[in-house]
Amino acid sequence: MMITIKVVLWCKVVQSGKGWVKVEEDSSSKLKKFRGQSEHGLDGKGRLNIPARFRDVLGQTYDDDRVVITPPWEKCLRVYPLQEWVMLERDLKLSATQNPKARLAMRYLVGGAIETKVDKNGRILLPAGLRGKASLAKDVTLAGFVEYFEVWDQAIFNDENEVTPDDFELLADLGFI
Fold first, then answer.
1. For the chain, which has fewer Cβ within 10 Å, the N-terminal or C-terminal residue?
2. CATH no. for residue 74?
3. Whole-angstrom Cα distance, residue 83 to residue 11?
4. Percentage, residues of the chain above pLDDT 90
5. Residue range of the domain that includes 157
6. Residue 170 and residue 174: Cα distance in Å, rounded?
7. What are the residues whose beta carbons fall under 8 Å from the beta carbon of 9, sequence distance 6 or more?
8. 35, pLDDT greater than 60
9. Which residues are CB-contacts of 112 (< 8 A; sequence separation ≥ 6)?
10. Rounded to an integer, what distance in angstroms lies between the CA atom of residue 129 and that of residue 82?
11. What is the C-alpha to C-alpha distance for residues 98 and 103, in angstroms, rounded to an integer?
């Protein structure tokens, strides 16, 4: 008689509205990340059309259309897939038990975060309070950041992210180019 034993040393499990869910990570899902930039306009209600490639990441990598929008970090909003946000909250909570600055960060980020769903037209509503804190007017730039994407006011993004020759020297010093 042959007995097969399967040992799982590690797996990614997240809590969602459906209960605890094991997140399978295969090589194809690792390739779908938030990459690239695009410019968009907010509609009169503050809704943002999510680019198809970002919606593909949500559907194919996370199998979920729920996202969490954080209060501004570095003059922009961050939009996390729910599963990534749950892991960030866990890490913040662990840090917050021992560090007063981490507790302050947790209050700001978790207390100000909004969970929402991508609607059937591929949009999310950016609440007025968060739009105001990030100085978002009509024209915005979305910037992929691997596990999440950022939403910037277009003019602020252009000012803050202007690349100079010195920036390339820094990249070379860090061994990236």
1. N
2. 3.40.1550.20
3. 13
4. 68
5. 42-82+115-162
6. 6
7. none
8. yes
9. 70, 71, 130
10. 21
11. 8
